[in-house]
Amino acid sequence: MADTSNSVLFDAPGPKGRRTIRIVNWIAGILFAVVLVLILMRLHNPPDGENQLSWELWKPAIEREAWTDFYLPGLWMTIKATVVAVVGAVVFGLVFGVGRLLPNPLVRGVSAVIVEFCRAVPVLLLMIFFWRWFAFAGLPSPSYWAVVLALVLYNGSVVAELVRSGVGNLPGGQREASLALGLTETQSLMEIEVPQAVYAMLPAAVTQLVVVLKDTALGSIIMYTDLLQESRRLGSMYFNILQTLVMAAVIYFAACWLLSRLAEWLPSRMQQRTAAPTEAEPVAPIAAGDPSNVNQIAVAKELEELPFGGAPRKYHVHHRGTNASIRNWQRTRYEQGYDATQPESQVDPETGEFQESQKPDDKPEA
After folding, report:
1. Which residues pair with 347 in a beta bridge?
2. What pLDDT digit, counting tens, does each position of 11-70 carry?
3. In this structure, how many other beta carbons lie within 10 angstroms of the beta carbon of residue 318?
């Protein structure tokens, strides 16, 4: 079966359109190759500096000590902050997302103010504010907790909006049915609507993990020793900051790519677990004499090579509906299918005709 998903938004290009697209792709590829060559030439021979492509600069950035002492410890700190921030953001989002849906106007208003404030304030500003506050209070690891708390507030507000929009997209009949069963609005929200919204928002929440992982890099500004900060430290030691940042970018790309694949796999997995087995919908019988009747067409194909009333088997295939005419309704009915309660519907497999002693036209004895 051909894939028509792309034809929903636009028509498939014809020969001229495909030729134009192919030419544009070739031009874009050539331009990209030219720009890449110019960048490499610039790095090979910069105006004021040494060759950035030399092995002496790349070796310290990819050797074993760089991974064990800088990249992997920095990646661990990034993952640790990401996991704690994600858990906190989910809790924050569920609490204030449900708070924005409760019938109590005070709770709904306070939740709305907190969510909108956390969405409006930049994440970096929150990190700097919490970092200075925790350092002044003498808390241990102020940069780590500043990064985590800032990410929890911002991403938690996003999760709260996901919860609210998920509940809003549910069919209105579910709340009406729950209220008709005697549940209160709060019970309907907590027991019926929110669980469905949470399950539906899981793919979008997994996609938000990519944002959390990347935003941890802002913690390097407040001296948090994440992957970016460790790569900068390594580059300052060997004066190869470009090479170490390239390696950090590759690691970030690999981590975000894995999370993106998880976000793509999760919806299909959820669909397999929740989708019910599909069955063909029953077709209502079509009126007698309708030329579009599938039963009439099927019977005609069965009998097209034999005289009227015959088929090379004892019983005909039973078809849906009826094509019986008013006059010969009994004979037509028996031609379409054998009824176990009506043995006179049997035909002679050799002659293809009704048996003489059991023709449908014969009337039973009194």
Report:
1. 354
2. 778 888 889 999 999 999 999 999 999 988 888 887 777 777 888 888 888 888 889 999
3. 10
Closest alpha carbon to 358 in 336, 337, 334: 334
* Strand, helix or coil for residue 354: strand
User: Which tens digits make up the pLDDT trace of 277-314?
Assistant: 555 554 445 455 555 555 555 555 555 545 554 544 44
CA distance 156 to 304: 70
Neighbour tally for 275: CB within 10 Å: 8
- Burial grade of 100 (CB within 10 A; 0-12, 13-18, 19 or more): buried
Q: From 134, 157, 145, 154, select the one nearest 77 (Cα to Cα).
A: 145
Q: How far apart are CA 87 and CA 1, in angstroms?
A: 43
The Cα angle at residue 139 between residues 137 and 145, in degrees rounded to 5: 115
Backbone angles phi, psi at 347, to 5 degrees: -125, 160
Say which residues have a Cβ less than 8 Å from residue 121's Cβ, sequence separation at least 6. 154
DSSP secondary structure string for all residues of 279-345 = -PPPPPPPPTT-TT-HHHHHHHHHHTTS-TT--SSSSPPP-SS----SSSHHHHHHHH---TT-GGG
Supply the DSSP string of 27-69, one letter for each residue.
Answer: HHHHHHHHHHHHHHHHHHS-TTS--TT-HHHHHHHHSHHHIII
